[in-house]
């Protein structure tokens, strides 16, 4: 195996630099490919200063989104560097060499594996040991996708939208449909055979598309339960798109694209989705209002103390 790590950057060179410093001496990683997604700041110049025999820096002609940027990196890693497997990593993660070696061993033992990941941990993760991992879930149909998208409905129907706890109990690894895009290792052959990410999507829904494309190409996704990595909850995305409602709008466009192109949703279902999206935006506004009230109450309470 020859493993390359692809890290996609957009206006966030500082976060990329921290990750590179953390993994550059891992002997299991043969090459690191930094893809600058047409940043509008000095990111590209900063990343170029990291170049050496192990680190390559390439730049996209335009910011085509998460999928297009990572496709560019995987194609470069496989075509120019001869990588057989590629670790696709968001800048805002931390992963150990032990975890990466664990991912690689799955490919060595299971030729049907196209995607492998570990359990995602979040900062100050208060979930109980042995609880259901949050970074793997089944593929959904039209209605399941709608319920999965809503902040409230996702929690209300968690038992039906995810895997049951018993599915993970007492196992070292399990097959899953969809894995979170923040950190995963792919077989370069499988990834390219499936067509990679759909570049019609700018942000969100890439994971479901990759799952469907991998399955169509005859490959499976694996979640390692004894290994984990830390994810800082979309630091780069939230910095660049700070407004939650704007992120929601982008998510809606991506879900509608996915439903139309992969679930065969016609005009009536797209209209139903539009009504559902409106409801979700009302939820987001409601949460924002409650959070502002809570902050005002706390400020007033502290002032009185």
Can you put this structure into words, describing what you see?
It is a single chain. Helix 1 (13-23) links the parallel strand 1 (3-9) and strand 2 (31-36). This protein has two domains: 3-232, Spore Coat Polysaccharide Biosynthesis Protein SpsA, Chain A (Alpha-Beta Complex); 244-304. The chain is of the alpha/beta class and 305 residues long. Strands 1, 2, 3, 4, 5, 6, 8, 10 and 11 form a nine-stranded mixed sheet that branches. It starts with a strand and ends with a helix. It is 47% helix and 19% strand. It has twelve helices and eleven strands. The mean pLDDT is 91.
Task: State the CATH architecture of the largest domain.
Answer: Alpha-Beta Complex
Q: Mean pLDDT across all residues, rounded? A: 91
Coarse shape:
globular
Largest sheet: 9 strands, mixed
Q: What class would the helix/strand composition place it in?
A: alpha/beta
Helix fraction, binned, reads 40-55%
């Amino acid at each position: 195996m020859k493993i390359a790590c692809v890290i996609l950057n957009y206006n966030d060179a500082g976060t990329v630099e921290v990750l590179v410093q953390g993994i550059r001496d891992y002997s299991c990683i043969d090459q690191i490919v930094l893809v600058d997604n047409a940043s509008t700041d000095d990111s590209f110049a900063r990343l170029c200063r990291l170049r050496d025999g192990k680190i390559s820096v390439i730049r996209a002609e335009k910011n085509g989104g998460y999928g297009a940027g990572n496709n560019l990196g995987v194609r470069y890693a496989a075509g120019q560097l001869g990588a057989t497997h590629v670790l696709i990593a968001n800048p805002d993660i931390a992963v150990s060499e032990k975890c990466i070696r664990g991912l690689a061993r799955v490919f060595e033992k299971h030729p049907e594996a196209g995607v492998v990941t570990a359990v995602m941990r979040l900062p100050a993760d208060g979930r109980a040991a042995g609880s259901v991992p949050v970074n793997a879930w089944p593929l959904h149909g039209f209605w399941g996708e709608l319920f999965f998208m809503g902040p409230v409905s996702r929690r209300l129907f968690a038992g039906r939208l995810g895997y049951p706890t018993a599915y993970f109990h007492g196992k070292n690894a399990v097959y899953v449909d969809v894995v979170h895009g923040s950190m995963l290792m792919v077989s370069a052959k499988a990834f390219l055979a499936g067509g990679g990410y759909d570049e019609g999507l700018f942000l969100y829904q890439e994971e479901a598309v990759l799952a469907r494309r991998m399955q169509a190409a005859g490959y499976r996704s694996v979640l390692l339960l004894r290994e984990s990595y830390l994810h800082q909850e979309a630091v780069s995305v939230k910095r660049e798109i700070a407004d939650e409602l704007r992120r929601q709008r982008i998510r809606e466009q991506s879900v509608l694209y996915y439903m139309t192109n992969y679930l065969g949703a016609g005009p009536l279902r797209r209209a139903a989705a539009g009504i559902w999206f409106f409801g979700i935006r009302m939820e987001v506004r409601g949460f924002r209002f409650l959070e502002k009230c809570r902050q005002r109450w706390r400020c007033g309470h502290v002032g009185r103390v």
